[in-house]
Amino acid sequence: MENIDFNDTDDGCQENIDKNRALYIFYSSVVVVEFILGLLLNITVIHLFVFKIKFWKSKTIDIFLFNLVLADILLLVGLPVKAYNFQQCSENKVVCKVQLFLQFLNRGASIAFLTIISIYRYYSVVHPGRRKVLRILKRSPQISVFIWVLLGVLTIPAMMQSFIRCNSNENGELLNTVVLLREIVFFTQILIPFFVLVYCSIRIIKRLEQKSVGDKTKLRKAMFLVTSVVLVFAVCFLPYAITRAVQLQTNGLVMHDEKVAIVKLYDGLLCLSYVNCLLDPILYCLSSGTFKKLYISMYLPFLADKEHPDTSEDTADD
């Protein structure tokens, strides 16, 4: 639980855990399941990128996909600590802030690479003639390094100032410059990418409707893919961000029980947000016919005979 602020000692946190033991055991179990399934899926996908596809020699989009999966893996690695905290409420301040730094960094990287992939596909499908933009986007190694460095700098405030939960001896958080910067980064890295995804998806679908005359199956698959990405993003991150905004707005302005209710809702939506790490490889990697066949042949050979040949490539994977 990241965001409990009882304006007293850690006894308030333990009291909340004791009163909602069954709920937080459920939250902890969900996180453990997400950790196991997500880590297995992402590790197998990244294994193919490194040892079979050799992403550094492959298509531009493969480098972005590799970084997306890497960010999801690094985010998943911290989930056992999150599951433990859901049950025990024993947080060392240093461990808490390091975990939050890694969580902010890797979730931000995951969203950033998801967004850059959508932008790349948008220009490849809707504006293939804009070669200058495409040449810039094809500098995927440099863009990837820039994203990691930029997010690392922007995430430093998560270490410098407590995130409400990391220091419950504080009498609330003052809206100082560090806290304000941290919250701006938090909401910006969710809201702006969401609107970019929606715009790119709508334009891609309209363009595909114009190009895919008579090829309804391929059109439906492409439309399903881009729509699914937006829906998954909206379900995983928007409720989580909205609840965070409500939590900040009501901090210090509502009764103790109301704060606890908001915290419980936030923690549940935080668990939901980790589902994105499980779905990213499916939506982005396994949506490619070539990658899907390679994955099945490597890890699910018993399904290989049941799969029909599929030579269609993912949208704009040039």
Automatic annotation (TrEMBL):
Membrane topology: Multi-pass membrane protein
Chain ranges of the G-protein coupled receptors family 1 profile domain: 41-284
Keywords per UniProt: G-protein coupled receptor, Membrane, Receptor, Transducer, Transmembrane, Transmembrane helix
GO CC term (a single one): membrane
Pfam families named among the record's database cross-references: 7tm_1 (PF00001)
GO molecular function: G protein-coupled receptor activity
Coiled coil (UniProt feature): none
Main subcellular location of this protein, as a coarse class: membrane
Localization, UniProt: Membrane
Transmembrane feature ranges: 24-51, 63-84, 104-123, 143-164, 184-202, 222-242
InterPro entries: GPCR_Rhodpsn, GPCR_Rhodpsn_7TM, HCARs
PANTHER family given in the database record: 12-(S)-HYDROXY-5,8,10,14-EICOSATETRAENOIC ACID RECEPTOR, HYDROXYCARBOXYLIC ACID RECEPTOR 2
Protein name: G-protein coupled receptors family 1 profile domain-containing protein
